[in-house]
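PT: before anyone asks, these are the final sequences, not the draft ones from last week. 662 residues across everything. Please model them as a single complex and drop the result in this thread when it's through.
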Amino acid sequence: MPQNKAWTLASFPAGAVTESNFKLIESPAPSPKEGEVLVKSLWLSLDPYMRGRLSQQKSYVKGVELGEVMTGETAGEVVESRHPRFKPGDTVTAPAGWQLYGCVKGEMLTRVDASRAPLSYYLGCLGMPGRTAYFGLKEIGAPKPGETVVVSAASGAVGMVVGQLAKAWGCRVVGIAGGKEKCDYVRSLGFDACVDYKSGDLYVSLKEACPKGVDVYFENVGGPILDTLLRLMNLRSRIIVCGLISDYNSTESYGVKMFRSILVNRIKVQGMIVFDWQERYPEANQALLELVAAGKLKYRESILEGLERAPRGLIGLLKGENFGKQLVKLA
Amino acid sequence: MPQNKAWTLASFPAGAVTESNFKLIESPAPSPKEGEVLVKSLWLSLDPYMRGRLSQQKSYVKGVELGEVMTGETAGEVVESRHPRFKPGDTVTAPAGWQLYGCVKGEMLTRVDASRAPLSYYLGCLGMPGRTAYFGLKEIGAPKPGETVVVSAASGAVGMVVGQLAKAWGCRVVGIAGGKEKCDYVRSLGFDACVDYKSGDLYVSLKEACPKGVDVYFENVGGPILDTLLRLMNLRSRIIVCGLISDYNSTESYGVKMFRSILVNRIKVQGMIVFDWQERYPEANQALLELVAAGKLKYRESILEGLERAPRGLIGLLKGENFGKQLVKLA
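LR: through. Structure below.
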């Protein structure tokens, strides 16, 4: 039986997450029960939503409890199967958490084809972040060709896909990212422009980059950037509220001052979570895989080596220190 | 030629509206040009949207300019017609402004049947406020029977109709109003409950009045009441942003702190203006007239006598001093 390592929740963060909120434990890998599969995880995905799990506040789903293994999506290989649909060697994505080995019910696994794209992509542009971009943009944003789409955290896991999808659908696309290096990268993905929120006057820069105003805003960050966008939204425009990362670590919420723009411009603002389109995942998976195969969906990964680095990786992600989809390479 | 009196805009208010922002002028009534109709106005409607017209900020439509007659909807009689569809004696509603006599293009007039309901109702529950309630609730709120609908400014022109429509459509309906007298009245309209925002803890009172949370919130006021509602909204609930009257007179906008609820609860928040459903007005007019005829849509009016009182009436309306649909009786 191989040895397992797992990060468990030691305490709830008050404000910013710290490494001391987690505790690494070692034990023999567990054995699958009937209907379960033992997965050896090769990649762990780190995502902003994880901050919400480290809280006793109401959120999408139940949070992690003290002593529990921290939740997270992994990509890996089946080691042992007690489920009829899986056999050892299958490549899968699984909600196996921050650990090297996890037992997961067969129904919770997704089989993925590592010959069509790198395995890690199934945690990013071909996984939850990619599907989030696809359904949020298509179903809530519903951009028409020629419209202007703005996305914040544009070099992040979701933002990269949002922008390239919007380009593929005929829109003018403007990203928002922090720092010259990220902005240069975002432009290299084919965005028409990328504005650095850390430099200069964001309102002035965005106004210049969006001469016809903004029809669709894909919101990942919240805070003052949201207020700035509300000043630039067009009549009957749409805002997809996918994330508000600037608020996640705050003990006090930012007060949105330009709410009045929603009234004046008859904006539709809608919160989303990708689970709401679960029955349509195959549609998104196929569309995204086709774009990757055609070279029209480029994707950058930010890789940390070793499970030990997972807490530091999440902390950095929540501060915007990552550059591209944040992953931890486990083996 | 009869003598006309008209309120013109003397200055833009900075913050709260004052009487000195308006100037009363007298002149002979104008003569209609080809295609126009001279209307003698009997009733003038005062509405919160008028605050937006007294501003050089971007809003729905162009604001009033200095020296121009203040805009407003009136109900009255045709005195002289140079339009083929109208003749003297016809009862109409018209965007004739704050004056006794106005020339209006025939296309801008709506013929109304004063034998089926009091003429003034066509400025209220059978007019713009009624249609605003109807389309906002039906198209954005889309309440299902058994759901909980909350409406602020519940004793106001729009709020009264929202609540009674929602009751007619099988919902639990909770109003928010200021003071015991207004709340008693709102309950007498058939609302299941009405909460006094001026007394006690609004969150606690609303939570008690909405044991299953809130599915649809029809927003007329904004400010801290909006933040309180955001704490009570259910998963996949809807907020119709019809008005934000608490902000209209402020020089600094209120900061909405609970924006995160839109994400966590996947709320749809949408701004509206009734003009967007212009081609469907007959549908709303008929539905509302049927409810009035059946005694299922009761309506309270707050009547000021004489054009001279119009500025004071608007100032009071913006402070929530009116009780029911605010009108000025002109003759």
